[in-house]
Specification:
Enzyme class: transferase
Shape: globular
CATH architecture of one domain: 2-Layer Sandwich
CATH superfamily of one domain: ATPase, nucleotide binding domain
Structural class: alpha/beta
Strand content: 15-25%
GO molecular function: ATP binding; pantothenate kinase activity
Protein name: Type II pantothenate kinase
Order of helices and strands: EEEHEHHEEEHHEHEHEHEH
Keywords: ATP-binding, Coenzyme A biosynthesis, Cytoplasm, Kinase, Nucleotide-binding, Transferase
Distance between the termini: 22 Å
EC number: 2.7.1.33
Number of helices: 9
Number of strands: 11
């Protein structure tokens, strides 16, 4: 049975698809540079399917491939998709911060179903790939994640304890005082550099997310986006730092596809 409708989230780095077959939601993703491959797949498996678009490159896809496809706002689609996946897990949040970690990061407020972007940063998956390559020479996402999981950020970062030792610190000594502050020569391993980079990304995202949560009196922060896929080191740090400031971190299975799923269900 071929899908009748496909939701496509065309981002800066990845093309994410969500479609339903026999009552089951299925997902696919391609690098944005593999548009020809993804379009060939669509022609073979779902030539007559209705297509709904969202994401930064949705206008381009509409112009080049799907002239009749509707385009849905990116943040609303992500919120719809996230709410649907939460509901499937028996969870429901009326008000929450939605942190979308893609190539960059967007911080959105969902208030009673109304979604608005309240903050954001250029720090995200693109930072991991670009700066990760400069620091380690590696260009594969899975490899960078593996390096980060094996490294120790404190070997590359100056920690609060490093500054105050041997005396007591007025704040948590395990916090970062300076990202990459110990890199003064070539003695820092690739693993530690990758761990430091992942830590910096997590700290930045949590800082922005928790600031938005405090400002809007929200307790729950939902983290989604393609950068979290099979990225245990980043997820662990987001969870740790969010809980440290008294907020509740929430992660969704298949959260990378919230935008595509939201377009599918719109």
């Amino acid at each position: 049975m071929k899908p009748a409708k496909i939701g496509i989230d065309a981002g800066g780095s990845l093309l994410k698809m969500a479609f339903e077959e026999q009552g089951q939601i299925h997902y696919k993703n391609y690098l944005i540079d593999e548009l020809d491959n993804s379009m060939n797949w669509l022609k073979m498996t779902a030539a007559d399917a209705e297509v709904a678009l969202t994401g930064g490159k949705a206008e381009y896809l509409k112009k080049e491939y799907f002239q009749n496809a509707p385009i849905f706002p990116e943040f609303e689609s992500s919120s719809i998709g996230a709410s649907y996946l939460l509901m499937q897990d028996g969870l429901s949040y009326q008000n929450f911060i939605l942190s979308i970690i893609g190539t960059g990061t967007s911080i959105c407020l969902n208030s009673g179903g109304n979604i608005s972007r309240v903050s954001g940063s250029g720090i995200g998956g693109g930072t991991l790939m670009g700066l990760g390559r400069l620091l380690t020479g590696e260009k594969d996402f899975t490899r960078l994640v593996s390096l980060a999981g094996s490294g120790k950020a404190e070997n590359a970062d100056i920690m609060v304890n490093d500054i105050y030792s041997p005396f007591d610190s007025p704040i948590d000594g395990s916090l970062t005082a300076s990202n990459f502050g110990k890199i003064k020569d070539d003695q820092i391993s690739k693993e530690d550099k990758a761990a430091s980079l992942t830590n910096m990304i997590a700290e930045t995202i949590v800082l922005l997310s928790t600031q938005a949560a405090v400002r809007n009196q929200i307790d729950d922060i939902i983290y989604i986006g393609s950068t979290l896929r099979q990225n245990a080191p980043l997820k662990h740090l987001l969870e740790k730092y969010t809980a440290m400031v008294g907020k509740k971190p929430v992660f969704i299975q298949n959260g990378a596809y919230c935008g595509a799923l939201g377009a599918l269900r719109s």
